[in-house]
Specification:
2 copies of one chain form a homodimer.
Chain A: E1 7-11, H1 15-24, E2 30-35, E3 48-51, H2 57-66, E4 69-72, H3 79-86, H4 95-102, H5 104-113, E5 121-124, H6 127-137, E6 141-145, E7 155-158, H7 164-170, E8 176-180, E9 186-194, E10 200-202, E11 206-211, E12 214-220, H8 226-242, E13 247-256, E14 263-270, H9 280-283, H10 288-297, E15 309-316, H11 323-328, E16 333-336, E17 347-355
Parallel strand pairs in A: 1-2, 1-4, 2-3
Antiparallel strand pairs in A: 5-8, 6-7, 6-8, 9-10, 9-11, 9-13, 11-12, 12-15, 13-14, 15-17, 16-17
Helix pairs in contact in A: 1-10, 4-5
Chain lengths: 360, 360
């Protein structure tokens, strides 16, 4: 168990690392951020940082000496890096969670092994595999690289048989899966934390809207039945337990049908704090970032109680130019990430509106 | 007007500077902390800091080059330091506010000049002055140094005529005032912000309990009449306007009498974020720290709406040893300041309980 004054090591220097570091401070914990050279806004809020590559083992060794526990902001931590660090200091969530979620084929096989549903999928290693998979799953369907996919990267939609070979080119002939298209009615996610003692606390499921494959808005309460909400939380609990997970994770679901016919399909698991949990900073009694810090510190989890009706809006690319209007909106909570350049598709910040429910 | 990416300079490296820096980050503003060598917990949450004395003018000059605006966490910034910096970059709140509040005699004269009441006082420059003052104001009365007093430092209570000369020794024969003892029923404060356009937003008056002259608990709502609450806010607005103040400040009051007979006496003005405003981090839509940053950045002030019934408890000295119980209390928000050593009387952190009022 960590005590105040101890230091948490964080791999990655982006907005998630930044918000983890900011959540550690009020708990009396220091943050040490490790990230390769680049635009690392997490360095701005931390008195300790290392600028080095993830395969710089002397730097990783010194970093491990300086911290009590190590966590990460992204699922693509190289396996060698995770193993090297884990032999020196506890890496939480554990490297097994990384291994399971870094590869879509492994991830989906794991999800099914827990008795949970996900869209139909077939492994694809060649153009011939892909043609056979399309015959089997039909069109439209989605070709996704097994590794390094996020925010729609490494994905190609196959609208008809004529687009098979261009899709295969689009993903660079990488090992992949073909996934059946799911005519979902909405997308939801559960952000949950699992403590070192195995206690799980989930935030209420939230509804997510995407634009160009990037999260655009998160809304609570989600327009789902209570039964669907409980099923989503139960699925997250089952996933957390099977991974012997410690920390915050997110499970994204497709909701198919509506009312009494609503069913859930797991879309993906993120072994980290998640964009769809950003609303918790202002809208819940404990933020997902504080919850993550509590979990990896070996402390009890905090209350996940929601403070009202929520709308979280991502500020993507040029959206951030709108900051003067956003800071002027009464009650709106602005979170800018301190990135130097607003490139298209880049997450520059978010804004949250919390409306007390007695007022609605 | 500052824009995201700009840097705020902060004089002082303690918990107030730390919480200002932490409030600047989500607004996309960087913080650069300037403080003498020592235990500076604000350095832990800031990517930029200068460790130098307040009379190190080359260091101050470099600091002023690195920032867009300069603020401070304590009222005892040396006048020369403030003037040197103010000639290079805007110092907010302005040095006049410092000058007025650094000296109890100047401060109380200023308060009276606005038509506001404060306890009777007499300037004391010698033992003879003190004897005469005690004859005039009676006992008990309080001898206070004109400068450098906080948390009961530089004060001596005069219970009777026999204790005059030991009180004079206690404060080191420094220029002082003798203040009449006020049989107050409670102490309240107003934490307010004034923007660059002269807009004032006050948080609701809070009730403060002290132990050994140090703030122990802050409670909201305060047990005062609505009329007293409005009078306190009106007094704060008058003070802010007269100082052409920009930023957050606090006005502490004694409440004398009760019910329809309640009257207010101004105790002191703090030209900075204030311990009695710490509840706003968790209990108001905008924290006093964010409000201060908004004001000095030239941005509009945020909503001061309160989220529920509030109890803020200071963790003084060894109180902080109780952290395992505090982190385990559902819904309690813990704020540790990251100080290295828990000396008696030292503010080590605070904890806030917010109870939604519909539940009470």
């Amino acid at each position: 168990m960590l005590k105040p004054g101890d230091t948490i090591g964080i791999l990655g220097g982006g907005q998630l690392a930044r918000m983890i570091a900011m959540a550690a401070a009020p708990l009396g914990l220091k943050a040490h951020v490790f990230a390769p050279k680049g635009d690392n806004p997490a360095f701005e809020v931390s008195g300790h940082f290392t600028e080095a590559n993830y395969d710089d083992f002397p730097a990783l060794s010194a970093f491990s000496e300086a911290v009590s526990v190590i966590t990460y902001e992204f699922e693509n931590v190289p396996a060698e890096t995770a193993a090297f660090l884990d032999s020196r200091k506890p890496v939480l969530p554990n490297p097994k969670a990384l291994e399971t979620t870094q590869d879509r084929l492994v991830e989906k096989t794991f999800i099914r092994s827990l008795g949970l549903s996900c869209p139909d999928f077939i492994a694809v290693n060649s153009l011939e595999d892909l043609k056979a998979a399309v015959s089997s799953l039909g069109t439209p369907s989605i070709l996704k690289t097994r590794r390094f996919g996020y925010d729609g990267k490494g994905q190609a939609r196959i609208a008809d048989e004529a687009s098979i070979s261009s899709a295969w080119d689009d993903i660079g002939h990488a090992p992949a899966i073909l996934e059946a298209y799911v005519p979902f009615s909405r997308e939801i996610s559960v952000v949950a934390a699992r403590s070192q003692s195995g206690d799980v606390k989930a935030f209420e499921p939230c509804e997510n809207e995407h634009r160009h494959h990037i999260l655009s808005r998160t809304l609570l309460p989600a327009a789902i039945t209570p039964r669907t909400g409980w099923a989503a939380i139960e699925a997250a609990e089952r996933i957390g337990a099977a991974l012997a997970y410690v920390g915050v994770f997110a499970v994204e679901f497709f909701v198919v049908g509506s009312g009494d016919d609503e069913t859930l399909l797991v879309n993906e698991i993120a072994p980290r704090v998640h964009n769809s949990g950003h609303w918790t900073i202002d809208g819940a009694e404990t933020s997902q970032f504080e919850q993550h810090v509590r979990a990896i510190a070996g402390w009890p989890l905090g209350s996940t109680k929601r403070r009202g009706k929520i709308e979280m809006i991502n500020l993507i690319g040029d959206d951030v130019e709108n900051w003067p209007d956003l800071v002027a909106e009464p009650g709106l909570k602005l979170h800018l990430y301190g990135k130097r350049e607003a490139r298209p598709g880049r997450k520059m910040g978010h804004a949250t509106r919390v409306t007390p429910e007695k007022d609605t």
